[in-house]
Design a protein that fits this description.
elongated, single chain, Rossmann fold, alpha+beta, 8 helices
Length: 345
């Protein structure tokens, strides 16, 4: 309920407060004394009009309304804006602050100016239906349906994009089906690398022993030194017992060199595998992210279906026309409602 309206430098009013009581309030007085200004001030504040009603010779004006929900003031001059329950909202532009409607919940349907036609009586049936929709707030159903359609279109587009990305990732994953085989080959290569290192160590020992023997022969050291060198050599290769086995060791040494060279080339060829494995892991992570996004979209679809079901339930609750009181009947489409006569919704 509106308790009072205060006008300051507003058209004919320098500073005047109108105290209102419960029920119908009537403002009387001679012409051009500011009766209509009271309605203009209320509409200017509640409907966020852009007119300038500042009193002639003044630079600022304001309108203050006190209701059961609080106090709201609109001011115009050096500053333009609102004050709602002590909090200022300035430079609001074309958008009225939301708290204003909490204190003064009026719309165009609640205000009739001096020269307006009688409410509803001069309107067509379609205009009357729209006015009734505003009065009983049926617009919320239309807004909800529009929101559902907009959300459905948006989520459908996103769903198609995600499905397309999933298909691309699946195809890419299938194109990398050779990676497990490469991983197995890499593990085998690691085992061969260790074997090569062991062979290299044995060859190094043989080369060191052979070098010692040649040094002994060159310097003419004692037989005992030569014997110790031979014993050390034979200790490193205990399987060598005669010239034939020594020749076999030499042959194995040369074959080992060939194997080492081949393994070195193989290691170089497989050096790119760690990077490929990391790329596969990254693709798997991205695939999981896309799968989670798809799950969220499906949940949004469930929420959308629930909203549509609620809308249909609300439509079913409206059984009687709020204009004439006649019961609604179903059209041939089974959903829209009407009743005989000129009044249709």
């Amino acid at each position: 309920m509106i308790r009072s309206i205060t006008l300051t430098n507003f058209q004919a009013h320098t500073s005047r407060t109108f105290e209102l009581r419960p029920g119908v309030n009537t403002v009387t007085g001679p012409s051009d004394t500011g009766k209509s200004s009271l309605i203009r001030a209320l509409a200017w504040l509640a409907l966020h009009g852009n007119e300038n009603f500042t009193r002639h010779g003044q630079t600022e004006c304001s309108v203050t309304v006190v209701t059961d929900s609080g106090t709201v003031t609109r001011f115009r001059g050096r500053r333009n804006g609102y004050t709602v329950n002590g909090e200022d909202y300035v430079a609001v532009g074309a958008n009225q602050p939301v708290p204003v409607k909490h204190v003064l919940p009026l719309s165009e349907i609640n205000v009739s100016h001096q020269h307006d036609s009688p409410f509803l009586l001069s309107q067509t049936p379609g205009q009357i239906a729209k006015s009734v929709n505003k009065i009983v707030d049926l617009q919320v159903i239309d807004d909800c349906v529009a929101w559902c359609k907009k959300t459905l279109a948006k989520e459908t587009t996103l769903l198609r994009a995600v499905e397309s990305e999933i298909a691309g990732l699946t195809e890419k994953r299938e194109s990398l089906s050779w990676v497990p085989v490469a991983q197995e080959a890499w593990n085998t290569l690691e085992g061969l690398r260790k074997s090569v290192n062991e062979i290299n160590e044995r060859i190094s020992k043989i080369e060191d022993t052979s070098l010692n023997i040649r040094e002994v022969n060159a310097t003419g050291k004692s037989a005992n030194t030569v014997a110790r060198a031979l014993q050390e050599f034979l200790g490193s290769v205990p399987e060598i017992r005669d010239d034939r086995e020594l020749a076999n060791v030499i042959m194995q040494y040369r074959e080992s060199e060939t194997i080492i060279e081949g393994l070195t080339q193989l290691v170089s060829a497989f050096s790119v595998f760690p990077g490929l494995l990391q790329q596969i892991r990254d693709n798997d992570i991205r695939y999981m992210d896309v799968t989670n996004a798809l799950s969220d979209i499906r949940e949004s679809g469930k929420e959308r279906d629930s909203a549509i079901a609620e809308i249909e339930r609300l439509e079913g609750l409206l059984k009687v026309c709020p204009t004439c009181g006649k019961e609604f009947q179903e059209n041939s489409d089974g959903r829209s409602q009407y009743h005989p006569g000129k009044c249709k919704t």
